[in-house]
Amino acid sequence: MQPEKKTFLAIGDSYTVGELVETSQRWTMQLVKLFQANNILFHPPITIAHTGATTDELLFDLNQLQPKGKFDLVSLLIGVNNQYRGYSLIDYEKEFEMLLDISINLSKQQVVVVSIPDWSYSAFGSNDQRGSEKISSEIAAFNTANKKIADKKNVLYADITALSMNHDPSFFAVDMLHPSGKQYGLWAEKINSIISPHFEK
Question: Is residue 3 part of a domain?
Answer without folding.
Answer: no
